[in-house]
Amino acid sequence: MEAYRDQYATMFNNGNGVVVLGISKDADTTLAAWAKESKFPMTFVSDTGAAIAKAYGNAAGDQYAKRLVVVIAPNGKITYRAPFNVMSADAYTKLGEEVKKTLSK
Hints:
By secondary structure, the chain is of the alpha+beta class.
């Protein structure tokens, strides 16, 4: 997850013109403390009841298949959503491509 933080300016255009949400089943208090301690500039969403995961087909029963990442354009439209493997370099590459596509629209 540190790659999110470390690449924020280049990968996410410093949050200008695009919103990237990382969604997990971690408790909000856990996510908030972790994000503050690690100085993450992006937004994380707690989905302990898996409502978001189920709505986007990212849940298997009560368990997530993977964390979910969502890219939102300035008009509020979701332009990309996918399970996200934080350990995969390919996941960051794909996410970066999707952010660039959103910014170019």
